[in-house]
Amino acid sequence: MSAFAWVDERLGRVTMYRLLTLGLSALAVVALVLAATDVIFLDPRAMVASAAVAVAASVASAWAAALAFRTRPHTESAVITGLILFFLFWPTLEARYLGTLALAAMLANLSKYVLAWRGRHLLNPAAAGALLVGLTGWDATTWWVADRWLLVPVALLTLVIVVRTRRYALVGTFVAVAVLAVAVRLVVEGSTPWAAVSTALVSYPILFLGGVMLTEPLTLPPRRWQQLVEAGVVGVLMAVSYHVGPLYSTPEAALVVGNLIGFAWGQRGAVRLTLTRSTRLTPRTVELAFRADRPVRFRPGQYVELTVPHARPDSRGTRRVFSVSSAPSADELTVALTVPEKASTFKRALAALPVGSRIRATGLGGDFVLPSAADRPLLLVAGGIGITPFASQLAALAAAGERRDVVLVHGVADHADLAYADVAQAAGARVLVLSPTPDLDGLPAGAVHLGERRLTVEALAESVPDLAQRDAYVSGPPAMVDGTRALLRRAGARRVRTDAFSGY
C-alpha cells in the first residue's frame, strides 16, 4: 500500500463530521497560540470568548430547533457550524458583537429547517447565518482566517478534507478560478501579477471557503460537471464587487449563490424509504430493499446517502453513502453491505432494521456512470462489495434489453462472496473471478477463474487482449482502486473511471 493510500484508508475510518470538528478545533488552537505570542494581532481572551459563544449558541439553537421541529439534533454538526462562524467574525469581548455572533449561529441552525425543502437544507448553514446577520447591518464578517500566518494550517486542513472526500476537481477548480479572478481584478486596479496572485491566496479566504464550506455534500449538485460549474461561479463571484441595498459582495454571499445553483440541479429534498425486505446474498453480504414515498431519480452507478439514527453512534456517525445496486426502473431501491464481526454501529443498526422501518435518503449523486454510446466495449473491475454499482448498471442493461460487450473482473476473498453473479449473467457479461479459492466448482455458471492472487498485467493481457479499446471502470476500497487504476494504465487502458469508498 502506498503512503497516499495508507493515509486515505486511515482518514476513511473517521466521519467527515469528526474530521471537520478535529480539524477546525486544531486550527483554532493554532490561531490562539499565534495570537498569544503576538504573531497575529488578535486578543486571545476575545478569541476564547468568541469561540465559546459561537459554539454554545450553535449547539443550544440546534437542540431548540430540533425540539421545535420534532426531530433529533445533530450536535457535532452544530459544533462545526459554530467553529466556522468563529473564523468568520472578528473576535471580540464586546457584548453587542458577541450577541450578533450568537445570532448568526442561531440563524445558521434555524436555516437548516426553515430554508429547506423536504428535509434537506438549501444553503450552507454558516454562510446563511453570516449573510443574514450582514443583511441586518448589525455586524459584518471579516473572515480573519485569511491571514498569511494561517495560510499553511488552512492549506493542510483543506488538503486533508480533499483527500478524505476526493473532491480534487471541485476544490481545485474553485481555487484556480477564484485566484485568477481576484488576481485579474487586482492587476486591473494597479497591482503586479505576482503581488496580485500572492494577495489572492493570502488575504482572501479562498482555501478555507473551498475546502471547508464548498465541499459540504448536502449543498452540492449530484454530477461532477455540475459541481465544477458551481465552483466556477462561486470563484468568479469572489472577485466581483457590488452593493445592492444591504447586500454587499462577500464570500458567504458568493457561496449562497452557488448553493442555490446546486439545489436547482440536485435531488430536491430527502426521500423517505420503507424497508420491504432483507436478503442475505452471501455469508457476509446483506441486500436491503426499500420502497420510496416518491420517485427517486438516479442513474445506474450513482450512490445514495442513508441516515439511520441510533443510540450511541460511534465515530462513523449516523449517515453513510452506499452505491445503489438496483436498476432505476425497478420497483424497489436496493443497497448491499458487508457486515464484518467488528462492524460500525451504523452498519449494525442498518442491518438490524425490521421490515417496515422508515429511514431517510438525504442525497443522490455521483459520476460513476457508463458511457451513453452502446458500441463502446467495457471492462468493469470490482473488489468485494464494490460490485454494487456494476450490479445497478448491468441490471439496467438487462431491463432495457441492451446488449453490450462487457467484461467483469470480480475480486473476492472466497467464491461464496460472489454477489450479483446472476445479474451479470442476465446482462450477458463475461465474468472473470479473482479469488484465492482454488475450487472451480464453486464458480457461477459461465464464470472463469482468473487466478488465486492479485491482478497482474500479464493476466489482463491474456484474458482481455483488447483492453486498450475498452472503457475501464474500477470500484472498491481506496487502496484497491488506486492500485488497480495504476495497473490498468500500465496494461494499456486509456480511459479509467474509479469509484472508491472508505465509509462516510
TrEMBL record:
User: Keywords in UniProt for this one?
Assistant: 2Fe-2S, FAD, Flavoprotein, Iron, Iron-sulfur, Membrane, Metal-binding, Oxidoreductase, Transmembrane, Transmembrane helix
Q: Which InterPro entries does this entry report, sorted A to Z?
A: FAD-bd_FR_type, FNR_nucleotide-bd, MRET, OxRdtase_FAD/NAD-bd, Riboflavin_synthase-like_b-brl
Stretches assigned to the FAD-binding FR-type domain:
268-371
A GO molecular-function descriptor: metal ion binding
**What transmembrane ranges does the database entry give?**
45-68, 146-163, 168-188, 194-215, 227-245
Which coenzyme or cofactor does it need? FAD
Keyword Aminoacyl-tRNA synthetase recorded: no
Q: What top-level branch of life does the organism fall under?
A: Bacteria
Q: Which PANTHER family match?
A: NADH OXIDOREDUCTASE HCR (PTHR47354:SF6)
Give the protein name, as stated in the record: FAD-binding FR-type domain-containing protein
The organism is: Cellulomonas pakistanensis
The opening ranks of the lineage are: Bacteria, Bacillati, Actinomycetota, Actinomycetes, Micrococcales
